[in-house]
Design brief:
The complex is a heterodimer of chains A (103) and B (892). Chain A has a domain of 71 residues. Chain A is built from 3 helices and no strands. Chain B has 4 domains: 425 residues, Up-down Bundle (Sodium/glucose cotransporter), CATH 1.20.1730.10; 70 residues; 108 residues, Helix Hairpins (Orthogonal Bundle), CATH 1.10.287.130; 154 residues, Histidine kinase-like ATPase, C-terminal domain (Heat Shock Protein 90), CATH 3.30.565. In chain B, the strands form 3 sheets. Chain B has a 5-stranded mixed beta sheet with strand order 4-6-7-9-8. Chain B has a two-stranded antiparallel ribbon with strand order 1-2. In chain B, helix 31 packs antiparallel against helix 33. The chains are: A mainly alpha (103), B mainly alpha (892). At the A-B interface, helix 1, helix 2 and helix 3 of A face helix 4, helix 10, helix 11 and helix 13 of B.
């Protein structure tokens, strides 16, 4: 996130910055919305693994590694999104974020 | 070796610690120093009551049985949390803006504030919560039994210990959950205690995990090798169960009453979700990180047949690490207690707000100004419902035999509570969802859940094996675990699939077919479009509220001390001029929130509403008002019609009355006139007849004269009577007209000659014969009578020296107009309006007429369809007679 919006030089027209900000924010929200779909897809992937027949199945340690890696990934993205959302929210307290973030 | 007594002491000490934490949190909050109590961290930690004793012990057991399958019940909530922007944010916003107290309250509020629905959800939640509580009982009992086995004193019996655990938990929940009724205090204390418990259980599990990985296995690498070498060392998860459980746990995470309680009801700030969105999945990850290692090591170290559900305890014990085992026991115990506290709190709130309070309020007259202390009723209701819920859990445990694996019991509860999901999600995102749909869907899912999952799970007590094997009454397609003949499915997947899909279908179909009430539609709009409107709950406008009444009511609910404190604080905030605060909207709103913590939002709202006088306008009020005003409008228009009718009638009556009065006056004057007219000749006749009878010696001349006078007077009487008779016949309309055709000229000829015949007067009649050739079709004799009368009148009353009567005739617009104008002084203006009245005589009695002539004339002409008027300003007396010209056929 650019923090140019916090302290704008007086000569700069604010609309340009706000425009860019809200565009960025909307894409961020898009990402946040897509995150659960990504998560569901990642969780569904183990269903494609072969059934364990004899010794050629997927070892449990690999499965654990995969699951916990995906899990951590989702948490990380969610964390980044959370911080970004907080920064955006505190940046324009005056504006109703619910309205702006809707679209 | 830790004995049972030590264990019990530790438990009691832990409980005291929790009470201390809750008490300290309350104190801090009351002192206004508890800002951190409302931090996102506390919120996130309080969410961890999702992890119960089932999670603590059962996850390891589940991992030991079926590998990574246990992780599904954590992945579901993770997905829900990271999609908070879609779902939870809306749920929390709705919950806050609608002042929801429980999930039953939310569902009921969405579907038109239907209490039926609230009761339904409450029953479902209680039944769904029952196996869950049984699960906590089982886990605590099992963990006790582990220590008991190692206890040399050996005074342990499982049956009685379950009972004592249940009773202890009930007492604990009652003490903790219904300590007081104040919304804010309760929340701070309990939430903080739960947060502490969640730290304890995470710490305990992590400690055991670290001990296992680094203490027993010797590091991560050897641990991984050990995992792969174990009997669960390969990925072997049933696809159906994997998907179903992820979905099921996600659904239950939202629908569970205790989750709803901490996630929505206790939410202090919507922004906390932002932190919880990543922090809670992280918590879940940490909780499950060491599950598989513990399971694998347990399978390795412990003898075959030992219960994998207790590996968390038995692994440290087997290594002689009693303190770790004790810590682990505390972890499990805290999982169970926090779950029981919050569940009991949530369920008892639902029961008391949706079942007990409506019944109790309906039995009390006067609602808001109830007599007696409401607090006792509410507290009693909550305590009794907690005891009953715990008793249910105990009996479920006894019925299910306590032998089933922990995880499967938890899943039964999940599947039960998930039946709310269609109504919940539909209510939040689909405006077309209706109350009927929600009721039908819930009922369908609920019954299917009972039939396919709950009853089969309780062993052979309530559902016999034959039903399970061959279906009820031998109907194979109704087998509880193979509906419609689809066999071979996992019973859990089977039950979840059928119950939730048929539930959703019934919900959608019934919603599509039914029609919502206006209140439902409005609530639907407010829920679905919660971000567009109604950010803040609507406020009171308490201009008419009576502070004293409010005070009395508040004392009854909160108790005298807190109520007075609250009112004084408010009064001071308002400026402190009076002892009681003004009923401003802000104050009323705070008061309502204060009360809602005790008796539920709906009841508190209703109570304040009764005192404030409903000045906060609800939809129902609006509807009622609209209805009423429509009725009023109708009524007033009816009234208007009636009043118009009445005024019309009154006017008619007035007119009739005036007419009657006039007629009566006319009759009176007529009678007096007639009697006067009759008396005058009668007096003469009597006088002269008396003279003739009593006087002797009358000369013949005198006799003749007197007789002539009597005769004249008799004639006059006869004429008068004739006239009267004639007039009355004419007036009554009983006259029969003798119609005939002739010209005006001949009628006038006859009238003039007969009027002037025998008269000594010198009236000259001027006529224009040419203009009199007008055809007439009328009663010629009657018309002639009128003309004669008019000519005679001129003869009698014309006071000119050489009286001249001019008769002129015209044809004006189909009417014959005949004017009789003499050259006398005419009729004085003040008498002109009277000339046609009966007995109206101008200028005294000189002509000896009765004054009926013109009255008769007017009657006759009216009968003939014409008109007779006096023409003023013609130089003398002038009368105009209009009669219709002869009809066309007469002219031809």
């Amino acid at each position: 996130m650019s923090n140019g919006g916090d302290r704008q030089p007086p000569g700069v027209r604010p609309s340009l910055f706000l425009e860019r900000q809200s565009y960025r924010r909307r894409r961020l929200m898009d990402a946040a919305r897509l995150l659960p779909i990504l998560g569901a897809a990642l969780i569904a992937i183990p269903l494609l693994w072969p059934e364990s027949e004899g010794d050629n199945g997927v070892p449990l340690s690999s499965a654990m590694f995969y699951i916990f890696f995906c899990w951590g990934l989702l948490i990380g993205v969610s964390l980044i999104f959370g911080f970004a959302a907080r920064r955006s929210a505190s940046r324009d307290d005056a504006e109703s974020d619910a309205d702006k973030w809707q679209r | 070796m830790a004995t049972l007594n030590v264990l019990i002491l530790v438990c009691l000490g832990y409980v005291v610690l929790l009470f201390g934490v809750a008490f300290a949190a309350d104190r801090l909050a009351a002192a206004g120093k508890g800002a951190w109590l409302r931090s996102p961290l506390i919120y996130t930690l309080s969410l961890s009551i999702y992890c119960t004793a089932w999670t603590f012990y059962g996850a390891v057991g589940n991992a030991a049985r079926s590998g990574l399958e246990f992780v599904t019940i954590y992945l579901g909530p993770t997905l829900v949390m990271i999609s908070w922007w879609w779902g939870l944010r809306k749920l929390v916003r709705v919950g806050r803006s609608q002042r929801v107290t429980s999930i039953a309250d939310l569902i009921s509020s969405r579907y038109g504030k239907s209490n039926t629905l609230a009761i339904g959800v409450t029953i479902l939640a209680v039944l769904g919560g029952t196996p869950y509580i049984a699960l906590q009982l089982q886990s605590i009992t099992l963990s006790f039994s582990i220590f008991a086995e190692a206890d040399p004193t050996g005074l342990y019996r499982e049956g009685s210990s379950v009972f004592w655990v249940a009773a202890g938990l009930a007492v604990f929940a009652i003490l903790f959950g219904t300590r007081n009724l104040d919304a804010n205090e309760r929340h701070h204390g309990v939430v903080t205690a739960i947060a502490v418990e969640s730290v304890v259980k995470l710490f305990a599990l992590l400690a055991v995990g670290i001990f296992v990985v680094w203490g027993i296995a010797g590091g991560v690498e050897p641990m991984m090798d050990r995992i792969d070498a174990s009997e669960i060392g390969q990925w072997n998860v049933d696809a159906g169960r994997w998907t179903t459980f992820v979905f099921l746990s996600a659904a239950a995470f939202v629908c569970l009453p205790r989750m709803f309680q901490v996630m929505v009801v206790e939410n202090a700030d919507e922004a906390h979700l932002r932190t919880a969105a990543w922090a809670f999945p992280l918590y879940l990850l940490l909780m499950s990180l060491f599950v598989v290692p513990i399971a694998v090591v347990g399978l390795d170290l412990l003898p075959d047949g030992s219960n994998p559900d207790l590996f968390v305890l038995t692994v440290p014990l087997s290594q002689g690490n009693e303190w770790l085992a004790m810590l682990s026991f505390i972890g499990g115990f805290s999982s169970a207690t926090s779950m029981v506290i919050v569940t009991a709190m949530a369920l008892s709130t639902m029961v008391s707000n949706h079942v007990v309070m409506p019944i109790w309020l309906s039995t009390q007259e006067g609602g808001g100004s109830v007599s007696g202390d409401v607090r006792n009723v509410v507290l009693m209701a909550r305590r009794v419902s907690i005891a009953v819920i715990m008793a249910f859990g105990y009996y479920y445990y006894r019925l299910s035999g306590g032998g089933a694996a922990l995880a499967s019991i938890g899943l039964v509860a999940f599947a039960g509570i998930s039946q709310i999901l269609p109504a919940l999600v539909g209510g939040l995102f689909w405006r077309g969802a209706t109350r009927t749909g929600a009721l039908v869907g819930l009922t369908t899912g609920f019954l299917l859940w009972i039939y396919t999952l709950l009853l089969p799970g309780m062993g052979g007590v309530l559902m016999t094996d034959s039903v399970l094997q061959h279906g009820p009454f031998g109907l194979g397609w109704l087998r509880p675990q193979a509906l419609f003949g689809i066999e071979g499915m996992d019973p859990m997947v089977h039950a979840v699939m059928w119950s939730l899909s048929l539930n959703t279908m019934a919900f959608c179909v019934a919603s599509l077919l039914s029609f919502p009430s206006p209140l439902e539609r409005l609530q639907g709009a407010q829920f679905v479009n919660v971000f567009d409107h109604s950010v803040a709950p609507r406020g009171w406008s308490g201009s008419v509220a009576q502070s004293e009444d409010l005070m009395i009511m508040t004392q009854r609910i909160l108790g005298a001390g807190p109520a007075q404190e609250f009112f004084q604080a408010e009064a001071q905030q308002q400026g402190g001029r009076t002892r009681l605060p003004e009923p401003t909207p802000v104050f009323l709103e705070r008061l309502e929130r204060e009360l809602s913590g005790s008796v539920g939002a709906a009841t508190a709202h209703a109570m304040i509403g009764q005192i404030v006088g409903g000045s906060s306008v609800s939809v129902e009020d609006l509807l009622a008002v609209a209805d009423e005003s429509a009725q009023l409008l109708e009524y007033s228009s009816q009234l208007e019609v009636k009043s118009a009718e009445l005024s019309r009638t009154a006017r008619q009556l007035r007119e009739a009355n005036t007419k009657l009065t006039q007629i009566s006056e006319q009759k009176d004057s007529f009678l007096s006139q007639v009697s006067h007219e009759l008396r005058t000749p009668m007096t003469s006749i009597r006088a002269f007849s008396e003279i003739m009878r009593d006087t002797d010696g009358l000369s013949v001349q005198e006799q003749t004269r007197y007789a002539a006078i009597i005769h004249d007077e008799a004639l006059r009487l006869t004429r008068l009577l004739d006239d009267l008779l004639d007039l009355s016949v004419l007036e009554s309309g009983r006259v029969s007209l003798n119609m005939g055709g002739d010209t005006l000229r001949s009628v006038l000829d006859r009238a003039v000659s007969s009027a002037l015949a025998g008269g000594s007067h010198t009236l000259t009649v001027r006529r224009s014969i040419a203009s009199e050739r007008l055809p007439l079709h009328t009663d010629l004799d009657r018309l002639g009578q009128v003309f004669i009368n008019l000519i005679t009148n001129a003869q009698k009353y014309c006071d000119a020296d050489e009286p001249v009567l001019t008769i002129s005739a015209h044809d004006v617009g189909g009417q014959v107009v005949v004017d009789f104008t003499d050259n006398g002084s005419g009729i004085p203006p003040e008498a002109q309006s009277m000339v046609f009245e009966k007995f109206a005589r101008i200028g005294g009695d000189k002509a000896g007429g009765a004054g009926l002539g013109l009255a008769i004339c007017r009657e006759i002409i009216q009968r003939l369809g014409g008109e007779i008027t006096y023409l003023p300003g013609q130089g003398g007396a002038a009368f105009r007679v209009r009669v219709p010209l002869a009809y066309r056929q007469a002219a031809q």
